[in-house]
Amino acid sequence: MTAAAAAGPRIGLIHATAFSMPPIDAAFDRLWPQARRMHLLDDSLSRDRQRDGDLTPAMVQRFVDLATYAKRAGAQGILFTCSAFGPAIEAAGRAVAIPTLKPNEALFSQALARGRRLGLMVTFEPSLESLAQELRGLAAQRGAAIELRTVFVPEAMDDLAQGRAADHHCKIAAAAGVLADCDAVMLGQFSMAPAQPQVQAALRCPVLTTPECAVQALRERISAGPG
């Protein structure tokens, strides 16, 4: 067995913001330290998505190109950490034909197992509608009737960008109060994961984060092998 094989598979981690990188590294440290991480960052993706207002063919091709690069560099699985790009990630997964996860699919699966009254929080507003549609679509596939409440937390992402992490966490925790009677609350972006302890302290229901759910799901998928 080679040293690389003993260390675990190479995982391509593709980001649209640098804020997603520390939370996913922390989740790998806790849940799958043997995996060899390969970070790819294109921090213009979110800005271009917000500018264009929708996914363009050119944007979809950029996702295919990023995934193809990761595969050629030896990645055996890919995790996109950027929300609001679901169809582009699906196209990238089809192109590379290796396990490729959207950031929220594992999160949504775990939330649906918790109950029907679900809360979804984001700090990047363009991601809200696409994530809600993705969750409702998954629920419909499973024959589950859900009551979804969504919350956009304005200014929190700006706080994070300007180094005010404590303010970021506090804003999210304060906004979570309207979701107090949910069966589970989802923090819909990787960058929100560090706020989980404060949000959990404000709520009685489980507060789920994208990084931990995604790492667990990708590890299981790769361990299962083809098919």
Summarize the structure.
This protein is of the alpha/beta class and 227 residues long. The protein has helices spanning 3-7, 21-31, 45-52, 57-72, 86-96, 105-112, 126-141, 156-161, 165-175, 196-202, 210-224; strands spanning 10-15, 36-41, 77-80, 100-101, 117-122, 147-152, 184-187, 207-209.
Instruction: Please identify the top-level CATH class of the largest domain.
Output: Alpha Beta
Integer-rounded radius of gyration: 17 Å
By oligomeric state, this entry counts as: single chain
Number of domains: 2
Instruction: Write down the overall geometry.
Output: globular
- Characterize the main sheet: 4 strands, parallel
Alpha carbon gap, first and last residue? 24 Å
Q: Give the helices and strands as they follow along the chain.
A: HEHEHHEHEHEHEHHEHEH
Secondary structure tally: strands: 8
Give, in spatial order, the strands making up the sheet with the most strands: 2-1-3-4
Give the proportion of residues in helices.
Answer: 40-55%
Q: DSSP strand (E) fraction?
A: 15-25%
Can you tell me the residue ranges where pLDDT is under 50 for at least 5 consecutive residues? 1-5
CATH topology of the largest domain: Rossmann fold
Mean pLDDT: 92
Secondary-structure class: alpha/beta
Q: From the 3D coordinates, which CATH architecture of the largest domain would you assign?
A: 3-Layer(aba) Sandwich
Number of continuous helical runs: 11
